Amino acid sequence: MSDQSRRKFIKHIGSTAALLGIGQLAAMAKEQEHIELLQPEKRIAANDKIRIACVGMGIMGFGDVQTAIKVPGVEFVGAADLYDGHLTRVKEVFGAHVYTTRDYRELLKRKDIDAIIVATPDHWHDTIAIAAMEAGKAVYCEKPMVQQIEEGHKVIAAQQRTKAVFQVGSQRVSSIALAEARKRYQAGEIGQLNVVEARMDRHSALGAWQYSIPPDASPATVDFDTFLKDTAKLPFDPVRFFRWRNYQAYGTGIPGDLFVHLISGLHFITGSLGPTSIYASGNLVQWKDGRDVPDTVVAIFDYPASKEHPAFQMTLRVNFADGSGGGEYTRLIGTEGVLEMGWNDFKVKKHKLPEAPGYGGWDTYNTFPKAQQEQFVKNYDAKYPVGKRTPIETSSAYAAPKGYDDRLDHFTNFFESMRTGKPVVEDATFGLRAAGPALVTNESYFSKKLINWDPVNMRIV
């Protein structure tokens, strides 16, 4: 593609990207590849203060709060958690002034709290999110939005009833890279989408959710009975409390933790409402530590044709026993190219077929009599000039600037919705359309059968 053609193309699709010289990124570029550095939108600093509290001060809770308070005008004032050590750590990190409690309902009673971050184990998401909305709070709920499909419909109903600002925490959908990828997809750069394939593999104890357990974990420091909620009553077990993702009762396994990220991104790029059938298989290969969920899952999703996109198939895989060391990719494959997603970067590689089909090689041409071969070549040369015999191949790369944080943009969008009333990026309906197929993946895995899904009404058929 010539420089002139490239500039015309960029102008045509209204890119927000700033072009870099190829020489600056020679290590990443090829002869027919350019790279563009994507620029975040400039935000207007707000004067009004938003006070937030977080329920669940584990890995995501601390990460969410540390990101949220980077947004101008946001103040962290309260935290709830069932482990006393987490609450002690809150004061060490954020200050002694932060109000802490084991009972999240104490946060909902406070008039000086405007928004609640829900970063608890999955089986508590719906209860706390609904109670917070009914208490007049805005809610940022970690993914997956819910643990059970019916809970998702209750969250949607609560959002519609209370008119609360509610956003699901799949931060990828606020990424400037994903926004640019959607532009490229909608501009037809890869032709007609037909296959999506993604993998997110790991090979480490922490990557397989064998999180550290504090030495002081005991019935005195952990409210284990409240953690159990409405699940089976069990004696105190610190492993279940601190490694809850390993159990069906409290988490959603690989699909709810990781597939939902990939599904959210796909739905954002394509505008899809979801698949109509899902089949999953897998195994518990390496991490036989008492967990009752698999450490390897492969799922096939069939997406129907709609006004937003053609019919296509998606295959997702996560392998926690990947002896190669792990890795990840997401590829949207079309008839003329492929969109290869990183996290905050992507490439578009095009391979457009020539008009001429070619001959020779692994072909019946070699079986023709010599006279027929000569006649075939004569006819072929007359029909296909030289310029129509070569595939068109190009490669373009796009990336967010160094230090870019999509979670910060996601929280910025959330707080802007609170301040201005503009729609959130990922509301409860979007959240269930992303979580639903992930939850159905578990249903398929454990039932060992294909499950049909209604993406419009968000229910198992």
Automatic annotation (TrEMBL):
One of its GO terms (molecular function) is nucleotide binding. Residues 50-169 form the Gfo/Idh/MocA-like oxidoreductase N-terminal domain. Gene3D superfamilies: Dihydrodipicolinate Reductase, domain 2, NAD(P)-binding Rossmann-like Domain. Keywords: Oxidoreductase. Coiled coil: none annotated. Residues 242-339 form the GFO/IDH/MocA-like oxidoreductase domain. The keyword Zinc does not apply. PANTHER family: BCDNA.GH03377. NCBIfam families: TAT_signal_seq. This is Secreted protein.
